[in-house]
Amino acid sequence: MSTLSELRTRVRRRADAVGNNFFSDEEINDYVNTGLGELHDILVSKFEDYYVSSASFSLVSGTSSYSFSSIGLGDFYKLLAVDLTTGNDTVRMKRITWPDRNKHSYDNAVYNERGYASYEYSIRGEAIRLTPEPDSTDTITVYYVPSFSKLGSDSDKTSESVESNWEEYAIVSAAIRMREKEETSTTSLERELDRITARIEEASKDRDAAEPFGITDDTAGVLPYYRWSL
Length: 230
What we know:
The protein is built from 4 helices and 10 strands. The chain has 230 residues and is of the alpha+beta class. The chain folds into 2 domains: 4-47 and 159-203, no CATH class; 53-146, no CATH class. Strands 1-10-3-4 form a 4-stranded antiparallel beta sheet, with no helix packed on it. It is elongated, with a radius of gyration of 23 Å. Mean pLDDT is 87; it is low at 105-110.
């Protein structure tokens, strides 16, 4: 992990701008954070769980919609999974689609349909919405990919999920922006960025080589078959 100060120094070296007051530290910080944000997107798009956070909240009887800010998802980027916990049981919650939005017109149980939670969720704007309207105070746990968090101070460090050599993506992309401002050639740096991007995309996949994903049985939740509600 490198600090923002260390990354800025490496950018100045790569752009041949050591001691060049044409670029302020604040400007280079912006370039670095833009590059780190792009790197974040590259890693997230591989869906290899480089970034995972979770937040839990209690249902409010009669309330269907819960804003991200109210349940601790202020940094929400992409959803990974939703669980419902009631008593000692934790079950998977399925996503509801728009065409099915009105299908729940009966009294709901805690779980049914082979071990799935009887509630279903959808992400709508800046909120998670549950269907049917909850009539319990059970606990919901949301697992999600957090959005990129900028480095603000010189001592802030890159994420532990970012390999040290992957930081070169942010450094080279920042150097390109500096060259563009100077109106000088960026050709060699662009070729270097293409090479780095390809290497990161290749190296970041198959993170768990020991236990690769197999086919998932989407017809069953977490309950054994003898507890299915048929």
